[in-house]
Amino acid sequence: MKKKIDYNKIHSFNELLAAKYGKQGTHDRDLWEQEFEAFKIGVIIHEMRKRRNLTQQQLADKCGTTKSYISRIENDASDIRLSTLMRIIRLGLDANLHLHIE
After folding, report:
1. pLDDT tens digit at each of 102 positions of the chain
2. Which CATH architecture has domain 13-92?
3. Fewer CB atoms near the end CB (10 Å): N or C, the chain?
């Protein structure tokens, strides 16, 4: 159940999330957390690409995809297949992917 928040008081991030999306384990909150994880993948790819001084086109060429697809991933506008994610990280960014499942 979502609750009203008093914005004149200091609240934790978790309290703010609960007020807007519900408590952990609720449908809306789970959906938000899944979307946030997808967003983080795009941010991570963007940051790694920048650290390696690669353009989106160079990264796309290295891993066999298109610049527009890299852009959509970095801007959280596209779902990404696990096999494509692994190829971008392994071939394009010369890194390794480790997953953690809870």
Report:
1. 566 777 788 888 888 888 889 888 999 999 998 889 889 999 999 999 999 999 999 999 999 999 999 999 999 877 888 899 999 999 999 999 888 887
2. Orthogonal Bundle (1.10)
3. C
